[in-house]
Write a structure and sequence with these properties.
The complex is a heterodimer of chains A (326) and B (331). Chain A contains eleven helices and twelve strands. Chain A has an eight-stranded mixed sheet, with helices on both faces. In chain A, strands 2-1-4-5 form a four-stranded antiparallel sheet. By secondary structure, chain B is of the alpha/beta class. Chain B has a domain of 178 residues: 3-Layer(aba) Sandwich (Rossmann fold), CATH 3.40.50.300. Chain B is 32% helix and 23% strand. Chain B contains eleven helices and twelve strands. In chain B, helix 3 crosses helix 4. Chain B is globular. The relative contact order of chain B is 0.14. Classes of the chains: A alpha/beta (326), B alpha/beta (331). The interface between A and B is large, with 46 and 54 residues.
Chain lengths: 326, 331
């Protein structure tokens, strides 16, 4: 483990037990939500995490922030492993990592004013006194381009875009070094999405915080991220520097995913070719043998059905888990 | 024309006042055509199509003006009984959310067979065969097993296929698809869009595709109308809208969406502000608050629909001059 990285995740696993079967003869099985992933993140860097529903991207985000119990692995934050820490021991660390949630309508308490919502993390994680807190809240509102006069209003008085700004302000309140944003723009109208993306870019440049940006929209992820990790069935199948990942994707899943994104230009959209994947994502309970992508992979050979591929470094800098990638 | 909407207006009575969801909208749909209706929340795109289907809850909704002609009959004047005979058979609809639009208590078989039993005189054996055939043609693997399943046993993509199968059982002339892929993953979205394209090409079914995603429109539609604040901001052929854009809102939409061609770290050009409050619309351009080209005139009177070419029209006093070269739109 090197000191240089802000965050280093090693072989992280999150398994959820499920019971199947009758009342008497229940059978213990597990959902492999996150199944052994490793990556690192530097100060001020943005890592985009993409994948389809059920690939484990949200679970990864929540595990890093320690909102759910992890099954195995380690999460080093500034050199300290967060996993063995008790809830109490984590509290002083929480001001260093914060989260922005997807749904701007359910992630703000409807009974609290905006001022109270923003003061809450300051209250529980910092030693600021009442007047300092008030000052900080006004400062935060300005920082996300909201009028500080909104202090005494309630969430329902705001539009989706404004609520997401409040969400971001709440995460910023304690001056974190890492923010995990889970689909922060997917519930917003297209014209508003761009406002929030630009805001995140500005805030990151200003505060030099690291960002884990989880999204299913590959175009949005490309705009914001320095590096991108592609997840499939609980595993990272490819991770690379953003420009290279989009220009020269190595894993067949990344290729298929990229070829499925509609292009808002009729001539290009009608001319391009899609890589067709067959079938749908298998259940994370009964994982396929060998490479978990082989049942849908257009290139699969016999080896893929038996041997599990591991991430290996390719010439263009990509880390890809595919036997055939070159 | 297969379908002709003339001067349609829909209002909702709410506690905050009268919401003018659709404000004097006219458009038409030719046989075999794919029309895209693009807009953000509150633009009136979904309400327009609920009106077409006669599915508006009345009250609170009120249709204050307009006619909707289908087969030379005004749908707004039909009795509920006649409308019911027509819904599903001539005009059918795919809803946005495949997770809530199927009845969780009933097997897929019951839900599909119900359509045929209501609208046709097929025997149960014929009806079952028709259902299985259509599921198979839509690429549902092992249709007989799925036919006998409950909705929760299917994935989102499969549920949406079942919804499409249901809407196609009676070979409708018009299929209205309201955000049919918004709830789905990109790879499944691509499959569903291919499917809709196939239905249109093979059976000549006209499609009205309602979406906020210009990428989806680009691949599927022949004509597009962009809606804003309950009105049509701009309409035209797919090339008119993308390469000869006239309305600043249309241009704003294109510039604010990131494309996969974007440079990492590039700045997006958002449209400032947020969509208008529909209770406060009046005799001014609804987009004036957010428009970069706004002048006094836009705030005191509303621009009329202006023709820019055959089938291409827009509502703006200060349209954009001739736009981008073909092949270089919006990136």
């Amino acid at each position: 483990m090197s000191q240089a990285h802000l965050l280093e995740v090693k072989d992280l696993k999150v398994h959820f037990p499920v019971n199947r079967g009758g009342w008497f003869k229940s059978e213990k099985r597990v959902v492999h939500a996150v199944d052994g992933i490793s990556f690192h993140l530097d100060v001020g860097e943005t890592l985009g995490v993409v994948g389809e529903s059920g690939c484990g991207k949200s679970t990864t985000g929540r595990a890093i922030i320690q909102l759910i119990r992890t099954t195995a692995g380690s999460i080093f934050f500034e050199g300290q492993d967060l996993r063995p820490l008790s809830f109490k021991a984590l509290v002083p660390l929480r001001k260093k990592f914060q989260m922005v949630f997807q749904n701007p309508f359910s992630s703000l308490d409807p009974r609290m004013t905006i001022g109270d919502i923003l003061a809450e993390p300051l209250n529980s994680l910092t030693t600021l006194n009442r007047s300092q807190r008030k000052e900080r809240v006004a400062e935060l509102l300005e920082e996300v381009n909201l009028n500080p006069k909104f202090l005494n209003r309630y969430p329902h008085e705001f539009s989706g875009g404004q609520r997401q700004r409040i969400n971001i302000a709440r995460a910023l309140a304690v001056g974190p070094k890492l923010i995990v944003a889970d689909e922060p723009v997917s519930a917003l109208d297209v014209s508003i999405q761009a406002q929030i993306i630009n805001l995140l870019q500005d805030l990151q440049a200003k505060h030099r915080m690291a960002l884990i940006f989880i999204a299913h929209d590959l175009s949005v992820v490309k705009t914001l991220s320095h590096r991108v990790a592609v997840m499939y069935l609980g595993k990272i199948v490819e991770i690379n520097e953003t420009r290279m990942l989009y220009a020269d994707p190595k894993h067949p899943y990344t290729q298929a995913l990229l070829s499925a994104v509609p292009i808002p230009d009729p001539h290009k959209e009608r001319a391009r070719k899609r890589i067709k994947m067959t079938g749908e994502t298998p259940s994370p309970i009964d994982l396929p043998s060998g490479c978990t992508f082989h049942p849908r992979c257009p290139l699969a050979v016999d080896r893929c059905r038996v041997e599990i591929p591991i991430l290996r470094k390719l010439e263009n800098g990509s880390l890809t888990s595919c036997h055939l990638a070159k | 024309m297969l379908l002709e909407v003339k001067d349609l207006s829909v209002e909702f009575a709410t506690d905050e006042g009268i919401v003018r969801a659709v404000d004097h909208v006219s458009f038409s749909l030719a046989e075999g055509e794919v029309l895209g209706i693009v807009g953000e929340s509150g633009s009136g795109k979904s309400v327009t199509n609920l009106a077409l289907m006669g599915l508006l809850p009345r009250p609170p909704a009120r249709i204050t003006s307009g006619e909707i002609f289908f087969n030379r009959r005004d749908l707004l004047k039909l009795s509920e009984k006649r409308l019911r005979a027509l819904r599903g058979k001539d005009i059918s609809m795919i809803f946005q959310d495949p997770f809530t639009s199927l009845n969780p208590y009933l097997k897929i078989s019951t839900q599909l067979m119900e359509v045929l039993q209501t609208h046709s005189s097929m025997t149960p054996t014929q009806a079952k065969k028709r259902c299985l055939d259509i599921l198979d043609s839509l690429g549902v693997p092992e249709p007989e097993i799925r036919f006998d399943s409950y909705p929760h046993q299917l994935s989102g993509g499969l549920k949406q296929r079942v919804m499409i199968a249901m809407s196609l059982l009676l070979e409708p002339k018009i299929l209205i698809a309201d955000e049919p892929t918004t709830a789905l993953d990109v790879t499944i979205q691509a499959q569903i869009l291919d499917l809709l394209k196939g239905v249109n090409q093979k059976h000549g079914t006209a499609i009205i595709l309602i979406t906020h995603d210009l990428g989806v429109v680009a691949g599927l539609c022949d004509r597009v109308q962009v809606m804003y604040g309950g009105r049509i901001a701009e309409r035209g052929s797919i090339d008119d809208i993308f390469y000869r854009t006239k309305h600043p809102y249309t241009r704003g939409l294109m510039e604010s969406i990131p494309s996969v061609d974007i440079e990492p770290g590039a700045r997006l050009k958002p449209i400032p502000g947020s969509p208008p409050d529909l209770t406060e619309l009046g005799a001014f351009c609804a987009f004036s608050d957010r428009c970069s080209k706004v002048q006094d005139k836009c705030r005191t009177s509303r621009p009329a629909l202006t023709e820019a070419g055959a089938g291409h029209a827009f509502e703006c006093y200060f349209p954009i001059g001739d736009s981008l070269e073909i092949g270089k739109a919006a990136s």
